[in-house]
Write a structure and sequence with these properties.
Length: about 425
């Protein structure tokens, strides 16, 4: 008998609920450094607005001015008349910022990663990726139809072995610059040397490094001392430190022209509203030139880590604004998150399949919008939450785990990809 697709989906939802993995979608109003969730104003320690640009007056004004001048929607794909002077100017300014020949604007980082892989890689080719690469890089390999191998997190020798297994295949080494759920840095200098030695190309998805690391916020590669040309494909997303939305791919003239011709996630989609490009230009100017934002962020990170150590809170090793606190079980991460909400802080639990089984955590992120005093209050709440004994809860749903849980774990790999 033919399986009922929606009934099967219902079973997967029940299984996820039994594993304390159900996500809850809430409409949260943002205002003045807080997030209003379920009617309560919580200090937000969860976002990626590291430099405080999402609410910056110059960024907002640039968006409004452009929308008043040009309207909102681009109305068409870039090649069909949707490409505006604001898009072109942002691409030129981003290329100059990163020291690359050319850059191309995508509507999201997800689409950019899919487009790059699908343009560069085919069924005979190999991508070698860090085990903790972002979900979009994992999905990109599926779209490209290439062989995908994943190396041990941060382990360059593991990557080398995988490249060696197919010495004649055209190959791309692809990594996050800053790992989104862990906050640590990829060993970019060693990976660049590996790529050079083995004839592979190197791609860095710098969603969490751009704006935050390196001179003028040029990102992880610059922070690692690499020249722009040491990285073949730079991906910068615009919705995190830059506070807007979208992504830029930067590299050689040949790379960008190839994307213009072949990247389906760029060719067959409506250009981002030009007002967003205008806002991003304003954000980029602030991010490049206001070093105090990066300096302040670094001071806040150091303050947070010192305070955690003093209170016996065992953070994961990270020097970036992403500061995870390992919880182990999803249930415990949720309990901590609820305790923090009760104390006035928004810090959601990150659970499988976003992270590995048993590696649930709180992902605490810092921003220049925070100050030392608020961070101290958060640390006190964290110390109290994590000191409380974990209460093993027995919910009726938990009993079904063995039965329905198997189906989830045996399901298509895409259901288990990091997200
Ligand atoms: C957020 C993120 C993306 C996706 O970017 P969007 O613009 O949000 O689609 C890609 N890669 C990494 C590492 C990310 O953290």
């Amino acid at each position: 008998m033919r399986p009922d697709l929606l009934a099967r989906l219902g079973e997967r939802l029940a299984a996820r609920a039994a594993e304390h993995g159900l996500r809850r979608l809430v409409a949260a109003t943002r205002g003045n450094g807080t997030l209003v969730v379920d009617g309560r104003a919580l200090v937000d320690f969860s976002g990626n607005d590291y430099l405080g640009l999402a609410g910056h007056a110059a960024v907002r004004d640039a968006l409004v001015a452009c929308a008043i001048r040009d309207g909102v929607g681009a109305g068409a794909a870039h090649l069909i008349g949707g490409h505006r002077p604001e898009h072109a100017a942002l691409e030129a300014e981003a290329a100059a910022w990163l020291g690359c020949e050319r850059a191309l604007l995508f509507s999201t980082g997800y689409a950019a990663n899919l487009g790059v892989f699908q343009t560069l890689l085919g069924p005979d080719d190999l991508v070698v990726q860090d085990k903790l690469d972002h979900a979009s890089l994992i999905d990109a390999a599926k779209l490209a139809g290439c062989e995908a191998k994943r190396y041990v997190h941060g382990d360059v020798e593991s990557a080398r072995r995988q490249l060696r297994s197919r010495p004649d295949a055209a190959a791309l080494v692809a990594t996050d610059g800053v790992f989104s759920m862990d906050g640590d840095l990829a060993p970019l200098a060693a990976l660049a040397a590996l790529a050079r030695d083995t004839g592979a190309a190197l791609m860095v998805d710098d969603a969490h490094g751009a704006g935050v690391l390196g001179p003028e916020g040029r990102g992880s590669a610059a922070h690692a001392g690499l020249a722009p040309s040491d990285v073949d494909v730079h991906v910068v997303t615009l919705g995190k430190a830059l506070g807007v939305a979208g992504a830029l791919v930067a590299g050689s003239q040949a790379l960008i022209e190839g994307l213009v011709q072949f990247a389906r996630t760029w060719v067959y989609t409506t250009a981002m509203p030009p007002a967003l490009a205008a806002a991003t230009r304003a954000a980029l100017a602030v991010a490049r030139h206001e070093d105090w934002r990066r300096d302040r962020l670094a001071r806040l990170v150091a303050h947070f880590r010192r305070g955690a150590a003093a209170r016996g809170i065992a953070l994961m090793p990270s020097t970036t604004p992403i500061q995870p606190l390992p919880a182990g079980s999803a249930e415990r991460a949720l309990a901590w998150s609820h305790a923090l909400a009760a104390a006035g802080f928004h810090v959601p639990a990150i659970r499988p399949p976003t992270v590995a089984d048993g590696a649930a955590r709180l992902r605490i992120t810092l921003s220049v919008r925070h100050d030392e005093r608020t961070i101290d209050t958060l640390l006190d709440a964290l110390a109290a939450a994590t000191a409380a004994p974990a209460e093993p809860r027995t919910e009726p749903a938990a009993r079904t785990r063995g039965r329905t849980g198997t189906r989830v774990r045996g399901g298509p790999a895409s259901h288990r990809a990091r997200s």
